[in-house]
Amino acid sequence: MHGPASPGWLLVALCAATGGYCLLRMRSRVEEQRRAAGGEALMGFAMALMAVPATVVAPPRWAWIAYVVVFGGAAIRTLRAARGSAHHLHHLVGAFAMAYMAATMATGRHHGHGGVAPLTGALLLYFAGYVLWSGGRLVPVAAVATAGVGRTVGWGDRPELARACRLAMAMAMLAMLLTL
């Protein structure tokens, strides 16, 4: 993505760490949590790759096209699962935003000083709202010490950590959209 190198590397680190934590969450005993964590890990690592400063590595056009295909496919897959689930709808918007950013980078039509495209503005508003909403939900969540009789909750089953992970990725998406 375009922008200064130092914030770009911080964004890479944040997204990679979030993707790594989502891989840990895939060890959950709950199937739905494992599936969601897998999609979030993919998103985190892909965002880390996209956030590498363009001054270090300028990906070729085919790489951006590959992102469009991967995240366009993820958006279509998520669309099928999204019926009635706000969480799946958020994944749908995230996958669409990734495909949109990759398509913008592939075509070379960066908005830069010419203003913000309406779709970019709508995505910025969505992710800003999501950051505020999910941050507000994170505050009152108490850590769960046990699940069931004498069984401690593993890293993959901690709701406050999963919410923090989603919040971090939403903030990263917001930052990436700002550099578009």
Largest sheet: none
- Kindly report how far apart the N and C termini lie: 7 Å
Structural category is mainly alpha
Average pLDDT, to the nearest integer?
Answer: 83
Number of strands: 0
The rounded Rg comes to 17 Å
Number of helices: 6
The gross shape turns out to be globular
- Percentage of residues in helical conformation: over 70%
List segments where confidence is low: pLDDT < 50 over at least 5 consecutive residues: 143-147
Structure described in brief:
The protein is mainly alpha-helical.
Q: Could you give the topology of this structure?
A:
Elements: H1 5-25, H2 31-51, H3 61-81, H4 86-107, H5 118-138, H6 159-179
Helix pairs in contact: 1-2, 1-6, 2-4, 2-6, 3-4, 4-6, 5-6
Explain what you see.
The protein has one domain (5-179). It starts with a helix and ends with a helix. The protein has helices at residues 5-25, 31-51, 61-81, 86-107, 118-138, 159-179. It is built from six helices and no strands. The protein is mainly alpha-helical and 180 residues long.
Question: What are the defining features of this structure?
Answer:
about 180 residues, globular, mainly alpha, 6 helices
